[in-house]
Amino acid sequence: MTDQHHGDVSPVDAVLAALADPTRRQLLDLLAVLGEPTATTLAEHLPISRQAIVKHLAVLDTAGLVTGRRAGREVRYAVRPAALTATARWMAALASDWDRRLATIKRLAEAAEQEATAGEASATAAATTTRTTEDRRGEQ
Fold it and tell me: Beta partners for 89?
């Protein structure tokens, strides 16, 4: 899973925490569409204040998902995909690990089912043989 050392939050944990908020996910979507907008431009697209936008952008920046650069008196924000890519790789590895575990469980369950079916078939054959032998004795 993710590592925590001395209270530090791992990059994956920071990304997941940042993405847990739907407003921050909307901001990332807007940034992807709008390129390098300002917080004021982003606020025009969402029902929250510019100050709230800036706070959300700070969380996204701390997680490594966005960057802000000064352009005169404005700060323009852009998506930084590296942290998201690293998190996606972690999630893919986790999914792959679970797929392997589930495949192992499936193989074990199928083997147990085949064993049980084979055991039932042997028991049925033995019972049939016993009845046939008893029937022959009864005919004599």
Answer: none
